Amino acid sequence: xxxxxxxxxxxxxxxxxxxxxxxxxxxxxxxxxxxxxxxxxxxxxxxxxxxxxxxxxxxxxxxxxxxxxxxxxxxxxxxxxxxxxxxxxxxxxxxxxxxxxxxxxxxxxxxxxxxxxxxxxxxxxxxxxxxxxxxxxxx
Length: 139
Description:
Blueprint: H1 2-7, E1 11-18, E2 21-30, H2 33-40, H3 50-67, E3 74-79, E4 95-100, H4 110-118, E5 121-124
Parallel strand pairs: 3-4, 4-5
Antiparallel strand pairs: 1-2
């Protein structure tokens, strides 16, 4: 996805929800090879501040839309949906795609519920033809 964004000269914002709070890694800059390095080193582990990240992303999108009204925005969320706490969510202000990476033997299906609350398209990672595929949200 990052390589496709780089070829399209798309501007990205990347918010990493890990640890105790979400952290901005990239804000409105053009995609670069640095993102590939970050992705290669990405770990996983639960307990993520996903709701904080979603709120920060919504705030950032609202500011960005005011500053660049002609810009098309899309939200990509990659999660297994295994969250400790569940807060009510407002639908995303832009088109969104949630990629469910839950792979445990017993799947809880919370990522699908999260996608529904956000009004996001839902895809399980196993259904994607190629991980580095399209950023589009249509099947």
